[in-house]
Amino acid sequence: MKKLIVAASTLLLSAGAFGAESFEAGLLSPTQLKGPQTSVDGVRIGLIYTVNKNVEGLDLNLIANKKQNFKGLSLGSFYDRTEGDFTGARLGWFIPITFNSVGGNMTGVQFGAVNIVEKNMKGAQFGAVNFTKTGTGLQFGLFNKADSFKGLQLGFINYTEHLEGLQIGLVNMAQNSQVFEVLPLLNFNFKF
Fold first, then answer.
1. What is the pTM of this model?
2. With contact defined as beta carbons under 8 Å apart, do 73 and 88 qualify?
3. Which of 6-20, 65-79, 120-134, 159-173 has the lowest mean pLDDT?
4. Which long-range contacts (CB under 8 A, 24 or more apart) does 168-177 make?
5. Where is the signal peptide (predicted)?
6. Is residue 58 a contact partner of residue 71, using CB atoms and an 8 Å limit?
7. HSE of 132, CA atoms in CB hemisphere, 13 A
């Protein structure tokens, strides 16, 4: 217990050596060094739930976190919410129960049980369930869904209204397929 207290004290005291916006640490928002309205350009560490305006750099959280926009590497958290745009990589501590949610656009990669991008995704989603409005790249999971997808959907069930690419899975649904809208094993639509 003494070692934990010394480590936490050292971490908090060393935060003063960083610039005003380069380090954030918190237990349960709004109990944070800088507060929820602060943007962080550096390292953010959270235990239960941290909230910041924007985060750029390394984001380490144990349970949950939220921010407006993000650029960098996000590690930890069972629940990770970015209200705006996400650029970088997101990897949870225990992927089978990790929930990742992006309210804007995502460029990069998400690893989690459930991955959601509410607007445009460019990159890859690896999870049990993957959702995006429009996507370019790869969706790999048990269930993949996109309104419009350009690239590869690989999973048990793949669904998109507008496909420009390939679906590989047990059930593949693409409303604009060049063959049939629903096919087992393989479905495709390529522009020539």
1. 0.87
2. yes
3. 6-20
4. 169/144
5. 1-19
6. no
7. 34
Residue with the two structure tokens 């003063």: 16
The total of other beta-carbon atoms located within 10 Å of residue 50's CB is: 31
Comparing 4 with 141, the larger pLDDT belongs to 141
Task: Indicate the Cα dihedral angle 57, 62, 67, 72, nearest 10°.
Answer: 20
Distance CA 147, CA 131 (A): 9
pLDDT of 3 higher than 60: no
Is 79 a residue whose pLDDT tops 60? Answer: yes
Collapse the DSSP code of 14 into the 3-class scheme (helix H, G, I; strand E, B; otherwise coil) and give the result: helix
Task: Count the neighbouring beta carbons within 10 Å of the beta carbon of residue 48.
Answer: 14
Name the residue type at position 38. Answer: T
Q: What is the C-alpha separation between 125 and 135, in angstroms, rounded?
A: 10
Stated length of the chain? 192
Residue 3: in which H helix or E strand, if any?
helix 2-14
Rounded Cα distance, 168 and 87, in Å: 27
Question: Tokens 């941290």 label which residue?
Answer: 50
